[in-house]
What we know:
This protein has 11 helices and 4 strands, in the order αααααααββαααββα. By secondary structure, it is mostly helical. The longest helix has 42 residues, at 293-334.
Amino acid sequence: MLNMVELFSLLGFPARVGGRALLASRYISSGFTTVRVTSEYAEQRFGRSVRWRPWLMIDVQELEEIEELINKGSDAQLESWRVSQLSVCGMIAIIGALVAQAGLTALQLPSLEDVHYIARGAFIMSIILSLMAVFFSGLQQSSFGRASDPREQRLWLSSSVRWNEAKMKAELRSSIVAHMILQAPFEIVVMSITLFVVGFGVYLGSSWKAGLKLNEGDQGNRAVLIAYIIPTAFTLLMYGHMMGLKDRELRKTGEVDIVQEMSADLKLEGSPANFVYVGGQRESKRFDSMPNTEDMNVRFDGLRMALKEAAEAHRRSAKADEEVARQYERLLEVR
Length: 335
């Protein structure tokens, strides 16, 4: 079954790469740090030939993260990840519906039948893919959303049990099938948005080249095309470049590892403030952060007073109980 899954991944690889064309500046700015496959995990799972199978490069890092989550993550972390995944899935369904509506409106553009057929074809594919994204989002909600128990979630995200030679223990292996199911709505809606942007660009460019009368003025079509190109290119370059720089920062500083260490320290020590990072190295400040002797004495004095008041209250309560018992005895004597 894995071979068939990899075959589907191979066939869909060009479309997945094309769907990410709008964020090409991100991968250029990051130095393609988010799509590397020559990692130790990739070679252990897919063999050394993984470097010659580029269709796996999009999934390797996320497969490793899922495997880390289901084997080392707590139940709370797993549930938080599940809620986040379902929330994103719901947002994708909304985006897909909006893109489908935009595609239907685009089919009513003036003189669409007179421009290059690529424009109409791109709009139609955008509509179909956006509807598929909505459909797959609903399927994801009904499949992964039903796995409410942490054990069921781990089993749903895993494919089998493997033996870890380095750690000498059995671990769950992340499922590439589950990963593709979870990623399908995102991948499809990204393709849909890319096709809509491309189709609209082809429409404006073809209208200008064919000299169609869409706007008043001698150069109206060219002006509208320029108005389309400038904001589109600027926003994609700016946001893609910023995301690429952030990818570089995360890879350079190892922020993810630091956050994980701080989380572990929080469980062990009770407060992340017990450690400080100097020059990228973690140093303990446990004893520096301890309260001084004067503060501790004040706290102990308060505790002593509270204990004395509690003891006195118990004594008064005991006296009151004794008085009640005496009154009961007097009533018996009267009778």
